[in-house]
Task: inverse folding
């Protein structure tokens, strides 16, 4: 994380008031140790390169200020407490901006077989959708899709990456089933 | 003997060649018992087929390579040969072959017929019994020369082991390229020895888990085309594709029934995945499992009567067996760890699987009642076994730790003779075809 310049650091400090973002930032920092080259993908999405969170109601506002993804424990599909806080913010945001439909993408880490992980990713997406529905997001605005283990964001071969890949990402728009 | 296919428009006619000398054919002094595990490979001399071009030596090389890769034969270096074969139909000087320890000898000839076809003939000799074991000839188009070599290798394998061969077969797989977090995947097909690789798709969509039809030039697979992950059929001769069924969710993990008339697969709805079949003629669908768990990776027994599948209904993924109508669902795997991707052997006697235990991924086999588990290979990540058509060899894919990609390996049922199957790019999800017809 040493490559991140000063404006980004201040950005991180602002974000860091939010516990979920702290968790996310820590996860990124952990991954960064093993895999610096693969981080920018994530860091850009999170606006950690000195960009701001975008105007309220924008895609970037959702990604940066709300948080577009949650993480799961190994082999688990239950929504963790930290993830619930992220989803609570997502639900509030989506109710404030009702013009957005969403697709929840479910993902698994590489430590499973291809076919099982497709089903596991689907179950994570479904659990996420269900939680959002329980917080007032209309089910007809939500679709899900599973990518199994086929779309990792972090590509090292240890637990720091696997924990980032076990995720559900809420995509504004998107095209699931 | 062989139906035409768009790949090579194969037409091979076969005929037996009788020995000029031996009164009794194939007294089977040269025998390999392949059930004994790590057998000593049989020393065999595969001489260059007589020809007026390079084709003779090339065919011999393919035959020798097939036999060697099986782990059951040890082709002898040609430099050691004493007798120079000038007429492959004439009785060889057996003493010259015994002295270099060749227990079996292959001679042959390849010529061009007047109509342009290739004529390939071979004889297999038992050097110690001093007689011909078998002799056959084949006619085909010149571009099929590798296939004729595989057919001859199968005939030699069958004559000496008593089991059907598997060399005249193909493997469909997922060809992978690019970095791990932006991987491109396409379907590809190749001969079982890794030659004649041919791409079947050219897409940016994720395509996974191709499986051969047992009865047609057809593959079922899963594609994310249009961000709608679903099971498809692909006609190899025409390239025509179609979605299998109209299901309200992701369909995945497809496989054919042994008669080729059904596709069995998983349907995901919300958090659950259950197993369905679709009859390809009537288009009727049948639901076979009904749980709130993940039921996937179904695979029929070769007689079609039972189905092995994977389910996490007990907590972790385990292997279950049920009757073809969905009744009698019974767990069969009880070892440490979790068990996935059951694949029933074409001989019916074993189920191959992927096992995850202690941070390692292994390929193993067990009997259909769950007994007799044997691990064949183990490491960071091994996944997705597929059986050679004779049920003696398994292919699977292996992912090393790190940012690289998966590669294909084969291993004998006994756990010996593990070999990489080299492919032009990363490769996963191999599925072996039946023996070609």
Result:
């Amino acid at each position: 994380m040493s490559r991140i310049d000063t404006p980004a650091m201040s950005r991180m400090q602002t974000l860091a008031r939010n516990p979920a973002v702290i968790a996310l930032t820590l996860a990124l920092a952990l991954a960064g140790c093993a895999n610096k080259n693969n981080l920018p993908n994530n860091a850009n999405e999170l606006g950690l390169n000195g960009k701001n969170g975008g105007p309220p109601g924008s895609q970037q506002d959702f990604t940066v200020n709300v948080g577009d993804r949650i993480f799961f424990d190994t082999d688990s599909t239950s929504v963790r407490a930290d993830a619930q806080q992220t989803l609570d913010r997502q639900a509030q945001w989506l109710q404030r901006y009702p013009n957005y439909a969403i697709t929840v993408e479910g993902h698994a880490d590489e430590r499973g077989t291809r076919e099982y992980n497709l089903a596991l990713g689907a179950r994570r997406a479904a659990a996420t959708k269900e939680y959002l529905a329980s917080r007032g997001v209309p089910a007809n605005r939500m679709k899900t899709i599973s990518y199994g283990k086929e779309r990792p964001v972090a590509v090292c071969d240890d637990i720091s990456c696997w924990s980032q890949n076990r995720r559900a990402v809420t995509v504004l728009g998107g095209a699931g089933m | 003997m062989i139906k035409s296919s768009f790949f090579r428009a194969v037409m091979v006619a076969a005929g037996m060649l009788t020995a000029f000398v031996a009164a009794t054919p194939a007294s089977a002094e040269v025998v390999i018992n392949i059930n004994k595990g790590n057998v000593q490979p049989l020393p065999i001399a595969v001489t260059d087929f007589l020809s007026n071009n390079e084709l003779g030596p090339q065919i011999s090389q393919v035959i020798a390579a097939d036999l060697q890769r099986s782990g059951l034969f040890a082709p002898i270096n040609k430099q050691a040969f004493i007798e120079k074969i000038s007429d492959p139909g004439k009785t060889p000087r057996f003493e010259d072959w015994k002295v270099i320890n060749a227990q079996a000898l292959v001679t042959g000839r390849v010529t061009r017929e007047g109509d342009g076809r290739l004529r390939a003939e071979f004889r297999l000799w038992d050097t110690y019994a001093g007689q011909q074991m078998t002799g056959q000839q084949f006619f085909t188009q010149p571009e099929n020369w590798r296939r004729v070599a595989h057919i001859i290798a199968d005939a030699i394998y069958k004559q000496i082991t008593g089991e059907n061969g598997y060399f005249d077969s193909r493997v469909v797989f997922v060809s992978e390229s690019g970095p791990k977090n932006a991987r491109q995947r396409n379907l590809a097909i190749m001969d079982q020895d890794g030659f004649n690789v041919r791409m079947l798709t050219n897409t940016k969509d994720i395509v996974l888990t191709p499986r051969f039809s047992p009865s047609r030039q057809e593959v079922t697979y899963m594609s994310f085309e249009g961000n709608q992950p679903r099971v498809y059929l692909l006609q190899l001769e025409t390239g025509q594709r179609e979605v299998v069924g109209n299901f309200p969710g992701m369909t995945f993990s497809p496989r054919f029934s042994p008669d080729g008339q059904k596709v069995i697969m998983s349907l995901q709805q919300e958090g659950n995945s259950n197993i369905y079949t679709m009859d390809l003629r009537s288009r009727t669908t049948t639901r076979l499992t009904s749980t709130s768990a993940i039921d996937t990776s179904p695979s029929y027994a070769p007689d079609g009567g039972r189905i092995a599948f994977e389910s996490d209904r007990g907590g972790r993924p385990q292997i279950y067996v049920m009757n073809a109508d969905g009744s009698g669902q019974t767990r069969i795997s009880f070892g440490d760890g979790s068990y996935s991707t059951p694949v029933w052997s074409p001989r019916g006697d074993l189920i191959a699987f992927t096992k995850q235990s202690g941070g390692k991924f292994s390929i193993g086999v067990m009997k259909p009642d769950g007994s007799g588990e044997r691990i064949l290979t183990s490491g960071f990540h091994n996944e997705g076994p597929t059986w050679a058509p004779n049920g003696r060899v398994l292919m699977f894919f292996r992912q090393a730790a790190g940012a690289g990609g998966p590669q294909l390996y084969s291993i004998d049922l006994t756990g010996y003779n593990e070999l990489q199957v080299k492919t032009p790019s990363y490769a996963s999800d191999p599925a072996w075809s039946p023996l070609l017809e």
Summary: Residues 170-432 of chain B form a domain with the Neuraminidase fold (CATH 2.120.10.30). The two ends of chain B are 6 Å apart (CA to CA).
